[in-house]
Amino acid sequence: MYRILQIAVANDRGGLTGYIVNNYRRIDKNKFQFDFVTYDDRLDFSDEVEKMGAKVFYLPRPSHIRAYYDALKKIHDQTNYTAIHFNLSYANIVPIALAKMAGFKRIIVHSHSTGIDDPSSLIRLIKLTIHHVGKHLIPALATDYFACSRLAAKWMFPKSIINQGKYEVMYNAIDLDKFRYNQQKRVTTRRELDIAEDTFVIGHVGRFTYQKNHEFLVKVFREIIKQEPNSLLLLVGDGPDRVKIEKMVNAYGLQNKVRFLGQRSDVSNLYQAMDALVLPSHFEGLCIVAIEAQMADLPCICSEALTAETKVTPNYISLSLDLSSVDWAIKVLEQKGKIRTDNTTRLRVAGYDAEAEIVRLEKLYQK
After folding, report:
1. CB distance 88 to 131 below 8 Å
2. Over the chain, what HEC string results?
3. What is the dihedral of CA 303, 170, 124, 308, to 10 degrees?
């Protein structure tokens, strides 16, 4: 049995946590078992993963160095782990170094981002400084290097790793059948949401944080409304900046045109109900939302910050954040009436079939 300790998951069903937990759902549990570390007080999905054989450990954050080390050492000594798998957005080597000190022999560092996500410019600067130092020390601590895209690899690892091709690109693959476009689901979901058939629906899925750039999205939607009053913006997700965005929507007088849907378990159906997805992110590792939406053949208007591997279908459009909100609105409105088709072959060839990627992951764990 190969047992892997996954660090860290959050009380969030989407994004990085969703990727890790979905891998656990798919992996062959006769051969592999995951345990999870979280820094949150609770996990809404803990019962589910524990029923499948996983353990959930609630640890202090790595900034509490002694307490973190003691907890990690205890976990290591109680179980024979094949590897500890760090899922990181920047090169904070403190938890990695503490894992090595605690006795973990195989240490996987997995890059999931290309930037620092924090509303404070000062905190971003501090973390960026830590990152630039830490990325050059990772080879002295880690044994394996994963990244969700080539750009995420360049962000996390030094040139010595990149130039020698020592990293593995692990795409944020999805269940293709779940997200395939379905006209009947579109009709049903719109009916459930009380959305008229002729309403132009723009969507966004993501946490309310600096990274996702909701402020610019609302500005774009304000311009869309000027040209197409029968439009609606669906904001799926939650996060620390939600209240600020709600105030912004109210200040623009858009409260009747914008719906805050919170965290949802039916995102695959929501893609069907939308007419365009707008993702003006400041940065991304590899945006799984854009992959899911393309499987539903939903037109995607995304910032150029998204990595090149994200573009799979003809309905994916990249725009610079230097362009005005008016320019973005024009491009979004051009997507009205687009015919949607089955993109299974495109997504499978591009490497986003979860069934194929989980086999790759199993082989890497067995190395």
Report:
1. no
2. CEEEEEEEECCCCCHHHHHHHHHHHHCCCCCEEEEEEECCCCCCCHHHHHHCCCCEEECCCCCCHHHHHHHHHHHHHHCCCCEEEEEECCCCCHHHHHHHHHCCCCEEEEECCCCCCCCCHHHHHHHHHHHHHHCCCHHHCCCEEEECCHHHHHHHCCHHHHHCCCEEECCCCECHHHHCCCHHHHHHHHHHCCCCCCCEEEEEECCCCHHHCHHHHHHHHHHHHHHCCCEEEEEECCCCCHHHHHHHHHHCCCCCCEEEEECCCCHHHHHHHCCEEEECCCCCCCCHHHHHHHHCCCCEEEECCCCHHHCCCCCEEEECCCCCHHHHHHHHHCCCCCCCCCCHHHHHHCCCEHHHHHHHHHHHHHC
3. -20
pLDDT tens digits for range 271-304 = 999 999 999 999 999 899 999 999 999 999 999 9
Of the candidates 19, 13, 11, the residue with the CA atom closest to the CA atom of residue 266: 13
Single-letter code of the amino acid located at 35:
D
| Bond into 8 cis (ω within 30) | yes
Cβ contact 257:224 at 8 Å = no
Chain centre distance of CA 123 = 21
pTM, entire model = 0.86
The per-residue pLDDT for range 60-118, each reduced to its tens digit, is 999 999 999 999 999 999 999 999 999 999 999 999 999 999 999 999 999 999 999 88
Spatial separation of the C-alpha atoms in residues 131 and 124, rounded to whole Å: 10
pLDDT tens track for 206-218: 999 999 999 999 9
CA distances (Å), 169 to each of 91, 197, 248, in order?
Answer: 17, 41, 38
* pLDDT band at residue 148 under the 50/70/90 scheme: very high
Amino acid (1-letter code) at residue 356: A
Of 70, 57, 75, 60, nearest to 98 by C-alpha is 70
